[in-house]
Structure formats: C-alpha cells, structure tokens
Amino acid sequence: MTALLEVCGLAKSYGGLQALSECSLSVEQGSIAGLIGPNGSGKTTLFNVVTGFERADAGSVLLDGREITNAPPGRIGALGVGRTFQLTRVFGRLTLLENLMVGRAGVPRSRHRELYSDARCLDLLDFVGLSGSARVPAGELSYGQRKMVELAMVLAQEPRVILLDEPAGGINPLLIGQMGERIRELNRRGVTFLVVEHNMEFVMGLCEVVWVMERGAVIAHGDPEQVRGDPRVLDAYLGGAVDDDADDDVHDGDATDATDADDEAGHGRREGAAR
Amino acid sequence: MGTELAKAVVDGVLTGGVYALMAAGLTLIFGVMEIINIAQGIMVVLGAYLSYTLQVHAGIDPFVGLLITIPVMFLIGVVIEWGFIRRLASRDRTALSILVTFAVAIIIEGILTQFYSADLHTLDAWYVERSIHVAGFYLPYIYVFGFGLAVVLLGALYLFIYRSRTGYSIRASMQNRTGAQLIGIDIDRVAAVTFGIGAAATAVGGMVYGATNTFNPDSGYDLISRLLVIVVLGGLGSIGGALVAAVVTLVIEDVTAVLWSPVWSSTVFFGVLVLVLLVRPSGLFGARAVRAQ
Amino acid sequence: MTVADAPVAQQAPDDRGTDPLSAPGFRLARRSVVVLALLCAVGFPFVFTNPATTSIAFFTLLYAAAASAWNLFSGYSGYMALGNAVFYGSGAYFMADVTTHLNERGGTMIFAWVPAAGLFAGLVAVPVGWLALRTRRHTFVVVTIAIFFIFQLLAYNLQSVTHGSAGIELPLPPWTAATYNDPFYAAALVVAVIAVIASWAVRRSHFGLQLLAIRDDEDRARGLGVRTGRVKLTAFVLSGVITGMCGAIYAYYLGSVYPPFAFEAIFDLTVALMAFLGGLGTVAGPVVGALLLEPLQQYLTLQFTAAGLSLILFGALFLAVIGFLPQGIVPSLGQLLRRLLRWRRTAASGPEATR
User: Fold this and answer.
1) Consecutive H or E run containing A13
2) Among A116, B193, B229, C36, which is least packed by CB within 10 angstroms?
3) Which residues make Cβ contacts (< 8 Å) with residue C31, sequence separation at least 6?
C-alpha cells in the first residue's frame, strides 16, 4: 500500500517556541489514521502546515509523492486535501447550501457542474442529515450540526484525504456515533482519513493506525493496542490531559502493568480537558 | 539652505513630539479596546477651544489652563466611552466604532460651530510670539514648551502603563481581553480610563495646536487624518511606533516644504504612509502590535 | 450498520427548511413592488414639476446609486471603505476636464461622457484598491481615509489638471429653469437603475457568494479556494465605476467643481449611513436608506441654515440608526415578516405540529 500523505522532518517554530520538530508520519491510502497527543503537542500546527495555513520552517509534505510543502491553501485543497477545524468555521450568515457552494471556487471549471450541482449539494447535506435545513443560515445551527456542515463542505470538493481536527469534540454522544459512522462510510467509498482527537474511545475504535505526538515530534505509532500499551505514550500523557469520555471499565484493565502511581495520576487527570 | 534644512528638522521633531502624544492616545485606545476613535481629531479642536475660552473669558494662561482642561477632557472621554462605545456589539466592533466615533465627531463639530461659529481663532501668549535663540536658530518658545510637556507626559504615560496597577490592567487587557477578565480585571473600568487618557492627550495637543495654528471646527478633519496616518504608519496599537511615526512624518513634511515646496508638503505627509504600506502592510511596528486572541 | 440506519439523522423538514418569504406569492409581490417603484420613478418629474421637488428627487436618486455602489463592496465584503469620495471626485473632475478641453457646448450630449467618467474612476480604483486591500480590515479603513485626503490635497495642488481652488466650470446647458432638472433626473435614474441591477446581479452570482464568504470568514474562504484578492479588488473597482458616474452627473448639475465639493468627507459617511439604515449587504437596503435620508438631509439644510445644528442632527441620527436598527430596515422587516408568517403557519396547523 502506498502512502497517500507523507510528512517528513517537519519543523515549525513561533519565536522561541518550537511547535514542530523533526515531525514525520505517513498515512496509507484508504486508511483511517489517528493522531493523538497531549495539549500543546503540535497536532493542530501540523494540520495547519500540511494544509498550507502556516509555513514550514523545514521538512516537506508529500501528497501521493508530490511535494506540496508551503503551497497556498486553496491549491492544496484543489489537489485533494480536505480539512475541518477544531472550532468549527462555517459562514454564519450564509445558508447551508450557500456554504457548500463557496467551495466551488476551489475546483476547476470543468468539474463545476459535476461536483456542485444542486442535486449533489442536497445529497451531501442529506448524507450529514441536514437536508431539511438547506436554506437555513449556518449560524442558526447547533455546534454539532455545524460540524456536520463543515464535513459536507469538505466532501463537496471530493477530497482524497481528509484531515479532521477533533470531530468528536464538544458534541453529544449520539452525534459522536453518527460522526464515526459517516467516517467509516466515506472510508468504504475510498476516502483516506487522518483524525486528531482527544476522545480515546473514539480514536481507538475508529482508527487502524494511531500516531502519537509530544512536543512537536512523533514519539510512537502502531495499531491502537500497541499504542495504548506503549510506555512512552503513557509517559507523555501523565504530564498532560487525557479526555476519557468513556467510563472507567473500558480502560481500567488496559492501563494494566503501569504502576499504581501511574494509575492514580491517570485518574486524577481524567477531569481535565473536556472540550 | 543648510540652516533652513536643520531648522526644518528641528521644527519637525518638536511638533512631532506633540503629535506623538495625541497619536499615542489614539493607538492606546485601539490597543486596549480594538476601536478606532475618529473623534480624536475634533477632540483636539475641542481642547483648543476650551483653552481659548479659559484664556479669553477668564484670563487664564493656556498652560495653566491645562490643569482644568485635562481633567475636563478626561471626563468627557469617559462619558463618550460609557455612552457610546461600551454598547457596541462585539462583532464588527472595530468597523462599528469607526462609524460611531465619526458620528460623535460630527456632533461635537456641530456643537462647536453653534457656540463658536466658523470664525478662525488662535491662542495668544508671550511664548507664541517670542523665540528662544539656540545655536543659531530661533525656536518659538511654544514649540519648545509644547515639546517639553509632551515628552514629560509621554514619560508619565510610560511609567503609568508599565509601573502602576491600572497600567498593568491596561496591558493585560491589550494582550488578552478575555484572559484579563478571567483574572478579575474590570474591563469596563480599564476601557473608561484608557479612553479618558486618550482624551486627556487631546487636551494638551489641543492647547499646543491652538497656539501654533489658527483653528475652527473644520480643523478636525485635517487633524484626524494626520493622526490616523501616524497611527497606522507606526502600527496600530504600538505606542513606540506612533512616536517614531509622528516624528518621522512631521520631519519629512517640514523638510519637503523647504526642499521642494510648501504646497506639496502635506501631500507628501500622506504619501509616506502609502510608500510604507507598499513595503510593510502592517505598518512599521505592526507585527508586534497584533493582539493574541 | 449504514448511514441509513443512524437514528435521528434528519432535521425536521420545512419548518425551518424553507423561507416563507421565498414562497411564490411573495416573489410576485416583490417583483410587482419593483416594477411599481420603477414606474413611479419614471413618472415622478411629470407629476411633480416643481424644480425644488425634482432637485430633491435628483439627489435622492444619485445617492441611491452611490449608496448601492458603496454597499456593493463594503456591504458584501465587510471591508468598510470610507474613501469612495475619491471616485466621486475623480468622476467629477474627469467630466469637467474633458468637457472644457473639448469645448463642448452644454446639452444632452454631455451625458455621453458619464460612462467614460465612470471608467476613469474605475481605473483610479485599481491601484487604490490594490494598495488598500493589502492591509488588514482595521487598517484598511484608515488607509481609505488617508487616500481620500491625498486626493483632496491633489485636487488643490495639481493646478494644471484641476485648477486648484479656482475649480473648473462646466458647459452650461441651454435648458430653461422650469425643466432644467429633468435631464439630470433622468440621468440619475439611469445610473440608479444600473447600480441596483449590478447589486442584484452580484448578490445572486457566485462572485457575490464569494464576497459574502469573505465577509464571514476570509481565511476559511481562501482555504476553500476563493481568490480573495481578485474578488475583493473586482468588487472595489465596480463600486468605483458606479460612484464615478454619480460624481460626473453631479459635476454637470452643479456646473462647476471645486476640491471641497468634489472630495467631500461627509459623502462617505452619508452613503455608509444610508446603507446601514436600509440594511447593509442587501440589494434594496441602500435604496431605502437613500429614499429616507436624502430628502431629510435636503430638508434639514434648508430649514436649519445654521450649519452646526444640521451637523448635530445628522450625527445624532446616525447614532440612533446604529443603536436601534443595527441590522437596518430591510432585514428587520424581513425578520418580522418571517416571524409573523411562521407563527401564523404553526397556529393554523394546530398545537401538535409545534415542537
């Protein structure tokens, strides 16, 4: 299997703060990859650099072998990389349909009718369960619904890989389940995913591969089981905040061989970072 | 030519100092409250009229009169902030503030026209006519005193902002409004004080302006356009930037008057902004003035 | 498990899905209003022949066009430009310069130069817009103000072109006093119609959608592929062209141009106020705002010859509008109507239908 998205040795600093250093990961075509790490580990910065919203100081980003480092965000979008945001960004005063239509500017003219016909847009809204609100201003929707709109906006441009920034953050459990379902459905249709999340249950249940970041670099990766038991990962999180939405029973056994001190610190931290 | 040029530079520096004080008030207001006070120009004119009234009707020397006009303008600033600025919705705040303060400026201009008519006035005092003879130049005392006062006040402003408790609150609000609220800073009080400081600066600026120019209510436009240019040139929110920009633009303007022609000097004043923006869209010190959210 | 099985997926349709104001009945009503308004506007000078009245009507139409032009850029993109007077004045001076240099005689043919004046203003708008749009939103406003003052100073100082404070005289039309205003009224009407059509066409187009997206979240729009720089500049130039045409007509009407009249600071505030009052970002808003404000402004200047009082009233009016009707008349009315209609609809279908 080939890597669709590859990040090699990415570095980015803000003044004195090194947000990314020697950061490398790769996402296989057709997979759902997860990206976790304590607050401040650089996950959103990585997304920003990959999608062109920020410039990399060093390193490269490759899409299907082609270098897209530091390209303008519109161009990267046109090449097939979609992205959602941690705090949803929709156009509040535009209707849902209009929100979708904005993205038409980012695809070549030849594909306008194919990708942005009224029928397809309504279909996309239908997919995220919002076709009934097609003509409602996006600002009137709830937070969770806006997240769905964002997803539809990304899908409209028919991306090959979608970077999701905390898709399950701040929405009710029912909607989280639907979000997961839609991601799986899209993946079945061939879309590759890289998902940043603090919700461990969500990530571990959804992703085939999980990458772990700490302080701007990747410290571990593997399938969910491997990562969960990796002492380096546990170590990284003991100093940070972990959001376990699930109840204790799911995780207690897995924290396993860690010492009592680790357990306690883990429990103590559970109240943190509920976003 | 050499002495004329040198004199132009000195003149530019001296007047620049006074403009710096007024511009500092304007940029401070933006830095703390993210609003652009278009009324700053007409407030300078108001300050000039206040000094004038005190002089003509009460015989009070303009500099002495500052003891009255500064607190009065401070209060007026607080009232304006409380009455009009505070109620602004947070979305499109800056854009709305421009329109609102523009309207307030128009109202003040109307009030001044009603009370004083459109006749030109000026402040008169011994230091306006007489000059000090220094190193071959004749510098009008008013420029020297005005500059001196401006420097003293800018220094006081610096101490206030960097050494006092309220100043600490102001700086905190400038960097992170919400954060400041969360640690218990009274944002409303900070806003009122900041606006008041901006207004107080116009009292001083108004007095000096009134003594060195003839003015009427229409003068507000020229003043605000210059102050805006200075503030944008220095970078919105940067007091140091305003200082540098004020001196630089006024020196360039005065030098142009000598080297080229007085007719074009004011156009060049604005032209400097255009040139700088071509190279640095956020002003000379703009990047540093950007607020963290 | 597929998407189809996901519970509570669909939003309740229709209750919020469709806008009651887009029902066919309303569409017909809206169109009729527009046609009616147009007929009234065309017939106005034949019914109200008093020159004083037609003069007010002339200015109203002119400002309706200028306010629509201002709204086309500032209202749709959210970038507040307070320097449109630059284009107004440029159009005015172009008109004056061309007609005097070509030694034209006064008459209806002079109006043929109006579109050229508009294009000239548009050409001016290109570098001005390019420069101003390099800056952030906050700085943008200030830059437009600064550019305005530069132009005003240029008008005073470029003696060879503008004759400085002496101004330029335009050819005098040979029309009688009784019907003097009528050709101007017609010209203003034409420009107003052009402005409204442009506003409407932009609003409906994808170009307009991009502008509105920029207004809400420019970075996001750019991320989606919108060419923000190009879109903004195009709207800015279009706004300048229409405003320039207004200035040209104004110059001809006045008969002469001087720097303070051609480049007038209050102009920008006036058009902004009209757009705000009527509804920023709507098509009808600026027109409604002009219809309400311009006659009022003319009336005030006639009644209160004391300039100070009219300024105070103007400023106070502005504050009142921003304070009480921040959205503007047209959107507020629209919201009111929608609420009324939804209330009637749910009341009619019975209490069980309400959620």
Assistant:
1) strand A3-14
2) C36
3) none
pLDDT tens track for C250-304: 999 988 888 887 778 788 888 988 998 898 889 999 999 999 888 888 877 777 6
Q: Identify the CA nearest to A32 among candidates A220, A136, A179.
A: A179
Q: What tokens appear for B188 in the block? A: 């409303």
CB contact under 8 A, A74 and C222: yes
Q: CA dist C295 to A177, B14, C55, Å?
A: 60, 48, 10
Which residue in A65, A66, A20, A77 sits closest to A46, CA to CA?
A: A20
Which of residues 87 through 146 in chain C touch B, CB cutoff 8 A?
131, 134-139, 141-143, 145-146
Confidence (pLDDT) at C11: 41
A268/C174: higher pLDDT: C174
Tokens 């396993």 — which residue? A256
Q: CA A114 to CA A121: how far, in whole Å?
A: 10
CB B249 within 8 A of CB B233: yes
For C209, which residue in chain A has the nearest alpha carbon?
Answer: A102
pTM of the model: 0.84
**Alpha-carbon C283 to chain mean position:** 9
Q: Cβ contacts (< 8 Å) between B23 and chain C: which residues?
A: none
Question: What one-letter code names the amino acid at C332?
Answer: S
* Chain A, nearest residue to C216 by Cα: A91
Residue A138, token pair as written in the block = 């996006």
H helix and E strand count, chain B: 13, 2
Q: In this complex, is the C-beta atom of C342 within 8 Å of any C-beta atom belonging to chain A?
A: no
Q: What tens digit of pLDDT does each residue of A193-241 get?
A: 999 988 888 888 899 999 999 888 888 888 888 888 888 888 877 654 4
All chains having 3 or more CB pairs closer than 8 angstroms to chain A: C
Angle CA A9–C220–A185, to nearest 5: 75
8 Å CB contact between C224 and C94? no
Q: What's the pLDDT at C89?
A: 92
Q: What's the confidence (pLDDT) of residue B287?
A: 54
CB contact under 8 A, B278 and C131: yes
Residues B196-206 have pLDDT tens digits of 999 999 999 99
Predicted ipTM of the assembly: 0.80
Q: Which tokens is A235 given?
A: 């170590």
Amino acid identity of residue C34, one-letter, is V
Collect all residues of chain C within an 8 Å Cβ-Cβ radius of residue A85: 220
B103 touches chain C (CB under 8 A): yes
Q: Taking chain A, what is the end-to-end CA distance rounded to the nearest angstrom?
A: 35
Residue B289 scores a pLDDT above 60: no
C139 min Cα distance to partner chain B (Å): 7
Question: C41 with C188: CB under 8 angstroms?
Answer: no
Contact (CB<8Å) C269/B282: no
Among residues A39, A5, A34, A8, the alpha carbon closest in space to that of A21 is found at A8
Instruction: Judge whether C4 is closer than 8 Å to chain A, CB to CB.
Output: no
CA–CA separation, A97 and A133 (whole Å): 9
Any CB–CB contact under 8 A between B110 and chain C?
yes
For residue C311, what pLDDT band results from cuts at 50, 70 and 90?
confident
